[in-house]
Amino acid sequence: MIKFLPLVVIIGCLFGTLNAQKPTLKSRKQIQSSVQKPTSFTAQKINGQNQLKSGTINNGLYKNVNTVMFQKPGYSSDSLKSIQITRPASTLKSASALNTREQGYIFLEKVKTELNIASPREDFEITSANEDELGHRHIRFNQRYKGLKVYNSDIFVHLSDRQEMMQGKFADIRNNISTTPVISPDKVTDIVKSDLSLQTKMIDLTPDQQKFLGYYGPKTDTVIFSTPKSISKFVLAYHVTIRPNYLEEWSYFVDASNGAILKKLNNTNYDGPFTANAPDLNGVQQAINTYLESGKYYLMDVSQSMFSASKNDGYILTLDAQNSNTSTFKYIQITSTNNTWSNKTAVSAHYNAIQAYKYFKNTFNRNSINGTGGSILSFINVAEEDGSSMENAFWNGKMAFYGNGGTAFKPLAGALDVAAHELGHGVIGNSANLEYEGQSGAINEAFADIFGAMAERKNWYIGEDVTKTTYIPTGRLRDMSDPHNGGTSLSSPGWQPKHISEMYTGTGDNGGVHVNSGIINYAYYLYATAITKEKAEKIFYRALTTYLGRFSQFLDLRIAIIQSAKDLYGDTSSEVTKAREAFDTVGIYEEEPVQPSQAYPENPGQDYLLVYDTDPNDANSLYRSTTNASTLLPLTTVAMKGRVSVTDDGSFAYFVTTDDKIKAINLKSNAHEISDISPDVIWDNVAISRDGNRLAAITTDIDTSIYVYDFTLKKWARFYLYSPTTQENLKAGGVLFADAIEFDHTGEYLIFDAFNSLVSTTGDSINYWNIGLMHVWDKKTSKFADGEIVELYGSLPENVSIGNPVFSKNSPYIIAFDFWDAGTDEYAILGLNIENMKLNTIFQNTTFGYPTFSKQDNKIAFNAYNTSNEEVIATIGLGTDKISPSGTATVLINYAQWPVYYATGTRVLGFAPKANFTATYKSGKAPLTIVFNDLSENEPASWQWTFPSGNPSTSTLQNPSVTYSSAGTYAVTLTVTNAYGNNSVTKSGYITVSSATGVNDIESKVLIYPNPVSDVLHIETGTLSDDLTVSIWSLEGKLLKRENATNRINMSDLKSGFYLVKVEGRNLNYQLKVVKE
Amino acid sequence: MKIKALTIPLLLTIILGACAVNKKSRNHVIPSFSLTFGKTGGFTNINPIYSINNTGDLFKQATDKADPVPVKKLPSASLDSIYLLLKQTEFLSQPISHPGNISSYLELKMDTLQRKIMWTESAQLPPACLKLHLYLMETIKNK
Fold first, then answer.
1. Spatial CB neighbours of A304, under 8 Å, sequence gap ≥ 6
2. In contact, A931 and A1071? CB cutoff 8 Å
C-alpha cells in the first residue's frame, strides 16, 4: 500500500543552498517609485527649556553634577522629553556587588520622585544590560504604563565608579490614559490595509514566503503612543506591523479610541541593483551588474528579465570557493563596500555568466539555463582535493565551477567560451539531457562547444583565451574548424577526430566524449560556414530541444538536424541539402531508421482479474474474478499487505503477508497452495519477474534499498536508491524508501515509486513520491546490473506526487501510474509512452487507483470510490495508443481493491532483431577500406555480412572492415539473429568505388615490407611522396598507431594477427593488409 | 512453471562499521592491490590521478598522459584504514556507473580482480564507498 504522507509545499527550482549566505530575502528589494523614504528621527527641543547640558565625558574627567532636565513648572500636561540626570556614583559597598540589572533599578528608585513615577520596577522594563571593557555598566529601559509599552520612550542608565547618569527619551505621563481599546484589532487591520493599499502594491505572500519571513499576517500590539507633531499627549494606540508584499514592511500607529492613523512608517531598507566597471582577467574594463544590501555590494545581477523578486529566483550570482574542493566545499560571498572590484577572476566569471545568459536569451529566447528563469551560479577559486590548483572548469548539473589553471591553463573563468560551454551543459541537461558517455556524450560535449564558440563568436577555437602554448602549441584547447588542432593522433594534446573513420572506440573518457565531439564540431563548422552561424545555431538548438533524447547517437543527430532544417526552411531548402553534405563529409550517413519493436504478442491464455476483498465480514482475502466479474472465486484467507505480483504465465502470485513474510500462491492448482518464499519477517512489498527467475523486494526498514534475488544464482543483490538529479534549494535529505515495484518485460529493469524527504535551506520539509527505473539485471552477462536509476521526471511541480507505476501487458514503453496533487487534493490515473514521453489523463479519480492493464491493453482496472463512498474496483477502456481513455468508467466489483489482471498462457517475451547498418565511407577511390557499423535493433546475438567483391567477402563480426580494390558499385547484406528470430537487410548500390588515377603506378612504386612483420615495418614510396603519415588499424576499424613524417613504424608491441596499414602523403593514399607474427 | 527455491538464504548485509583501526586485530599482511582514484571530465578533461598500493606509496599523475610521481608514503595505520574501508566496500563489488560532466571514480586492481566505480554525486554511493572516498580525499591533502 502506498505510504502517502501529508505533503508540504514544495519550493520551486531555486539555488537555495545558498539562501543562508546570500543577501537575505527579507532585505532584497527593488527601489520603487511609490516607496517613501524613511524619515530620520530628530530630537525635539523642550519648549522653553535651556539647552541640554552635555552628558559626554570630557577628557576622562567626570563632572560631579547632579542635574535634572525637565520642562518648566506649570506645564502639567503629558510630555515626551529628552532627559539627563547625573549623580555621583553610589558609595554603598553593597552596590557594586549587585548585578547590572539590579543596579539599574536601584538608580531609578533614587530618581523616581523627580520622574514622578511610583514604581520603577513596574514602570520600566530592562531591554538590555551589559558591562563594557572599562567596567562601566549600561542598562537600557523601555518605559511601561499600566503594563503597556510606551512606544516613544527609550531610557539609558550609565553607571561607573565616578558617576551615575540617566539619559534618553522619557514619557512624563501625568494624565490617566485608558488602556481599554475602543476599536477592535480586526477593524484596525482593515483601516491599515485600506490606507496601505494607497501607498503601495498589496500582494499576498505565498506560504513559502510566509515561512521564510516568519510572517503570517499583520501583527498588532497595543502601546502607549505619543502623537506626532505634538508631544503633549499620549494615547492608547495599536502598533501594526504589516507586509503589504514580499519586499516591504510597514509600521502603523492607530488611535485605539477612534481609529485615526497617528503615524505610518515604511521600514523597507533602501537596497537594490547597481552597476560597476571593473577589469577582468584579460585586462578589459567590463560593465557588470551588482547589488547593494545593507551597505555591501555583491556580485549579483538582478537586472535581467528572468529575475523574480517574489520567487527569489532568476539572479546571476558569483561566489568564491576559497580554494576549497568538491569534497569539502565551502564558499563566501564576494563583496565590496564601495562597488569597486579588484578581483579580476570574479569579474570575469560574473561578466561571462551574464553574457552567456544573454546569448541564450537573445538568440533562442531561452528563459535562463533551465528554461524557466532559474538563477545562475558560478564559483571561482575551486581547487583540487589535494589543494593544488584545478586546471579545469565544470558543470555539476546545477552550477558552474572554475579552477585557476596552472601549467596548462590560465584561470578558466577568463574565457567567455568556457562560461558558455559550462552553462551550455545546463541547457543540454534541461532539454535533451544527453547521456554523458559514448556517442550521446560526444554530442553533449559538441553542443557545449558550439554554444561556447557561438556565444564568443570571434573564431572557431575553444579555450584560446586560457590555453597555454606550452601545453598545446596552437594555444587552443580545441579547434572546430580543424579538430586535429595541429596534432597527429590521440597522443597529441588537443587532437580530435574529424571523421567517423578516426573515431575513438575505447572506454576512456566515458567512451571518448571529449574526443569524438570533434566529429560533430567539424560537422557544425562545415554547416555554419555554408549557411551562416545564425541559421546553423538555431537549427542545432531546435534539434537539441525538440528532437534529441537522452541516448541519441550520431545518426539520430543527423536526422534531427535535417528535420529541424526542414521545419525552419522547408523540405527542399538549401539548409537541408547543406546539412546532409556536412554530415556526409564527416562520415555520418543517412540510413533508413529501424524502429524498435513496440509490442509483444498477447498472452494466448485465459485472462482473469485478481482482487483483494475489503469486506471486514468476509474471511477470504484474495479472489479470482472473470474479467466481467460474473464469477468470483475465493483463493485464500491469508491477509496481505498489498497487491500481488503474478508471473507472465499466470502460474504463481507473490505477495507479502501482514506479518511481513513473502509467500506465493499457486494459481493454477485447484487447491491454490500457499508456499513460504522467505523465512525472514522483514518484508514490505515484493515483485516477481515475468519469467519467474527473479524476485524484487523491499523491507519494512527505511534502508534506501531494493533487494533482488536471482533463483539461478541463488544470490541476493542490494541496490541503493538515490535521486539522479540534485534538486536546487536543498541542503539535505533524499530518497528514503521504495514501495510499489514491478519488473519490466525483459526482467532487467524495475519500475518503482519512492518516497523522497528533503530539507530546504530555509528548514522546510519537502516530501513527495516519484517514479524511477532501475537497471538490476544484465541478460547478456547473466549477472546483476549496476543499479543505475533514471527518474521518470527530473522535477515535479509543487505539491505533486506520482506513484504506483505499472507496465502495460504488451508494450514495453507504455505505463500507467497514480497522480496526486496535495495542494488541490486531486487524484488521477495517467498513461505515459516512455519512448516519446506522451502523457495523457486516463481517469480523474478520487483516490489512489493502483491501475492494472488488461490482457489486450484495451482497458485498465483500478481502485475508486462509488457515490456512496464505498471502495470499489472500476474499469475504463483505452484507446489504441493505450494511454488515452475510451468510453466512461464503470464499477466492476464492490468492496474490493488492488486489482491485478493476468492470463494463463505462455508466450515469448522477446523481439527478433531488426537489421540495419551504416559505413564509414560510402564512396572513394580504390583500394577503399571501409568499416561497417551495425545499427540493428533488438540486440542481435550474431551477424552475417555479405560483401560482394569485397575483401573479405563475408564476415561474422559486428563491425567488420572490408577493402574494395576494384571500381564498381556494390550491395551489402546483413543478417542478424538472436534467440527470438532473425532479420536481413540488403542495401543495393551502397558502396561506390572509383578507379584511383595511376593506381597501378602507386601500387608498383609503394613498397611495404616485410610482410609478415615481427617488429619494424618499412615503407618506400620512391618519388611519390616523402612526407608520409603511417597509421596502423585493426580490422575492426580501430586506430592503433599513427606516426608522422616517417617511413617506418614499429609493430613489435602489437599482438599477432592481421592489421591494415595506411600510408598517406601528398597525393598519396595507400592501404595494405599486413600480418604481424 | 514451477515455483522456485522454497528457502532463500538470509539477506546479504553490508557492514556499516566504523573505520577505526584496532591495532590488536591488525596482525596481518595486506595483499597486493592498487587503488586508483580521481575525477574525469570537465571542460579540459585535465584531472590529476592518484594511486595507492599495498606498500603505502601514494602517486600522483598531473594528467592521464603524465608519468606518476611519488607524493608520499602513507603511515601503516593509514594504509590499514584504507584496506579496512576497502574490505567494507566488498572491494568495490557494487556496480556503480554514473558518468557526468565531472565524475569521481575509484578503480581497484587486485590479482585478477579489476573493478571501477564512477559517480557524479555522493548520494549515488553506498555508505561504505563514500567513507572510503572521503578518507582518500583526506589522505591526499597537502598538509
1. A314, A315, A316, A354, A357, A358, A361
2. no
Contact A785, A839 (CB under 8 A): no
* A988 — pLDDT class (breaks 50, 70, 90): very high
Q: pLDDT for A953-971, tens place per residue?
A: 999 999 999 999 999 999 9
Contact A392, B43 (CB under 8 A): yes
What's the pLDDT tens digit per position in A416-431? 999 999 999 999 998 9
Beta strand residue intervals within A94-233, DSSP E? 124-131, 137-145, 148-150, 154-159, 163-172, 219-226
Of A414, A303, A297, residue with least CA distance to A348: A414
Domain that holds residue B39: 31-139
Q: Does A425 qualify as catalytic in the annotation?
A: no
CB A727 within 8 A of CB A13: yes
Other CB atoms within a 10 A radius of the CB of residue A464 amount to: 19
- Give the tens place of pLDDT for each residue, A714-741: 999 989 887 654 444 443 457 888 999 9
Rg, C-alpha atoms of chain A? 39
**Residue count of chain B:** 143
Alpha-carbon distances, residue A945 vs A655, A959, A962, A1036 (angstroms): 48, 10, 10, 14
Cell numbers placing A952: 573479405
Domains in chain A, please, with CATH? 67-172 (no CATH), 179-266 (3.10.450.40), 285-437+445-469+520-577 (3.10.170.10), 607-903 (2.120.10.30), 917-994 (2.60.40.10), 999-1076 (2.60.40.3080)
Contact A676 B14 (CB under 8 A): no
Distances (CA, A) of A906 to A626, A771, A903: 19, 29, 9
Asked if residue B63 belongs to a domain, the reply is: yes
For the segment A777-805, the average pLDDT, to the nearest whole number, is 85
The one-letter code for the residue type at A158 is: H
Buried/exposed code over A308-338 (b: 16+ C-beta within 10 A; e: otherwise): ebebbbbbbbbbbbebbbbbeeebebbbbee
**Whole-angstrom Cα distance, residue A775 to residue A876?**
31
* Burial of residue A499 (number of CB atoms within 10 Å: 0-12, 13-18, 19+): middle
- Give me the amino acid identity at A193: K
Burial of B25 (0-12, 13-18, 19+ CB in 10 A): exposed
The answer to whether A422 contacts chain B (CB < 8 Å) is yes
Which of chain A's residues have a Cβ under 8 Å away from the Cβ of B137? 325, 327-328, 385
CB contacts of A326 in chain B (<8 Å) are: 39, 102, 104
Q: Is A389 helix (H, G, I), strand (E, B) or coil?
A: strand
Question: Is residue A283 a contact partner of residue A342, using CB atoms and an 8 Å limit?
Answer: no
In sequence order, what DSSP letters do the residues of A336-349 get, joined into one string? ESSS----HHHHHH
Contacts of B142 in chain A (CB under 8 A): 386-388
CB proximity list for A499: less than 8 A, separation 6 or greater: A519, A522, A585, A586, A587, A920
- Closest CA–CA distance from residue B27 to any residue of chain A (Å): 31
Half-sphere exposure of A163 (CA within 13 A, CB side): 18
The count of domains in chain B is: 1
Q: How many residues does chain A have?
A: 1077
The ipTM, to two decimals, is 0.79
> CA A1009 to CA A1013: how far, in whole Å?
7
Give SS3 for A188.
helix
At a CB cut-off of 8 Å and minimum separation 6, what does A945 contact? A932, A954, A955, A956, A957, A960, A972, A973, A974
The distance from CA A170 to its chain's CA centroid, rounded to whole angstroms, is: 57
- Residue B137 main-chain phi, psi, to 5 deg: -65, -40
B140: nearest CA partner in chain A: A386
